[in-house]
Amino acid sequence: MDQLIIEAIRQGGYLGIFLLMVLENVVPPVPSEVIMGIGGLLVERGHMQFWPLLIIGTAGTVAGNYFWYWLGDSWGYERLEPFINRWGRWLTVDWEAIVRAQVFFMKHGHWVVFALRFSPFLRTIISLPAGLAHMPKGRFLAYTFAGSAIWNAALIKGGEFLGGYLQESQHLIAWGIFGMIGLCVVGYIWRVITWSPRPAKDESED
User: How far, CA to CA in Å, does 37 sit from each of 44, 155, 176?
Assistant: First the structure.
């Protein structure tokens, strides 16, 4: 079964990697660690090359993040809040989380768009506050590309290393792939089931 997943990504080629990386940043729960990790495994096996994989995979990351940036930049608060309130369960985010992310962004500045590409928290959602704050588009794209390229390069190299190190233990790779996918899916389902919007902060509170 692990070979089926790897072969499916190999057959999809660089275009498939691009589309999967777009989805990873738009529709949960598609883990980039699996996508680029398997890409690294395919580099180790000679089916892909490092630089095209890195550039195309990172372009997909940027495209997916740009969707959220564009939403914030174009819609603004008035149109975005009803959208989040309606679809927040499936995005596993509520409006209060967006407000908190916006405060974080305004407090720390544009550089967090770069820095959070290495964090499991706010990695994608920070693009929305960046759009709401009308961060310059060129700077947003540059910071997103630079941070994502470093993260994706680490994932590819990790996949290459595991592919070579576990050459005689391919079943361990299978367990790793299925384990990560399973955790992401179960985690997402759990968040959808248990999700409830937090009450807006009372303006009278300090």
Answer: 11, 5, 10
Structural tokens at position 37:
């990790």
Q: Which two tokens mark 79?
A: 């149109």
Q: Which residues contact 105 (CB under 8 A, 6 or more apart)?
A: 112, 126, 129, 130, 133
pLDDT digits (tens, 9 = 90+) for 73-101: 999 988 888 888 888 887 778 888 888 88
| CA nearest to 101, candidates 79, 73, 76, 133 | 133
Q: Are 43 and 158 in contact (CB under 8 A)?
A: no
Give me the DSSP letters along 137-166: HHHHHHHHHHHHHHHHHHHHHHHHHHHHHT
The pTM of the full predicted model, rounded to 2 decimals, is: 0.83
Residue 5, token pair as written in the block: 């997943």
